[in-house]
Amino acid sequence: MTFQNSSRLYAAVSSLLWPAIFCTGLTGAYFAFQSHMPLLWFNVVYLSIVATIALFERLMPYEETWLERDGETFSNVAHTLLSKGSVQIAAAIGTSFPMAVATVAQPFLSHQAHIWPEQWPMALQVVLGLVIAEFGLYVAHRLAHEYLSLWRFHALHHSVERLWVINTGRFHIIDSLFKIALGQIPLYLLGAPLPVFLWIGAVTAFIGLLTHCNIDVRTGPLDWFLSTPRLHRWHHSKLLAEGNTNYGENLVIWDQVLGTYYNPPRPSSTDIGISGKVAKGFLAQLVQPFSSKGRKQIIGKKPKELLAKEEQAARAASARKQASEPIRKTS
Ligand SMILES: [Zn+2]
Ligand SMILES: [Zn+2]
Fold first, then answer.
1. CA 236 / ligand 2 centre spacing (Å)
2. Could you say which of 29, 98, 170, 220 has the lowest number of CB atoms within 10 Å?
3. In angstroms, rounded to a whole number, what is the distance separating the alpha carbons of residues 76 and 124?
4. CA–CA dist 24, 187 (Å, integer)
């Protein structure tokens, strides 16, 4: 069953759904973090949001063909559990890890303990943390697209030909750890407290689910500063000129600042995927990037050819930036 696309109800739901699901998730996270078992209750909230998004994907899909099975559901869930498990173990030992990092870094950062503004309201600390973490996430993501040694891991995420809530966590574990390291280490070094990490984790979890959802949401001005499904569909485009854009995980502030923001005034791409070939099956996907045969399969084309295309994409991005036509559009 789908709503009538032209109905007022459809338009209202389409415009309100993204903020409604995001705020519901954050409210659930708030109560989870107040409880005696924060990780357990956070997982309950997370799974409830997954179920809600999956329901709306059936009711109002952005692309109907993406509802069809592609045989990758088990792999997607397995990669999610592996990556999410690592993050949660890191959160569980988070109280001791900052101390370990600080001990190592102390000689280099002698004022480390006084840098983070712990006197600020928690909401402001989380916003600050998101902006700082986003820079590391942006760099990690952009490097993963621009260097073949990292693309061989990140290609797994882009190898799907449909977007839906279940492939949100389809990341190779090496790709995830690289991204987490660049996103979190600056915060550890600045002395951010554990609640800031937990809230950033919550925001990232819900934005990630929403970013990959196959729901016809209208995100309007949110596209200017948050990573939305509309922006992220461009990022998954098969065309390098479209795909090597919108690297932001939660915020697109660094895309805006560094010239990789892309949001032309037309429906975002549904032709997604990569030119290379990623193995079928969870274990085969985990080991594929480590063999030379696997790397060649993933890259799909000779490195020089790919690099030439990437240079072409960079030139196209630069030309777009200089063009006079407005590239921002509310959807
Ligand atoms: Zn990517
Ligand atoms: Zn993605």
1. 6
2. 220
3. 34
4. 26
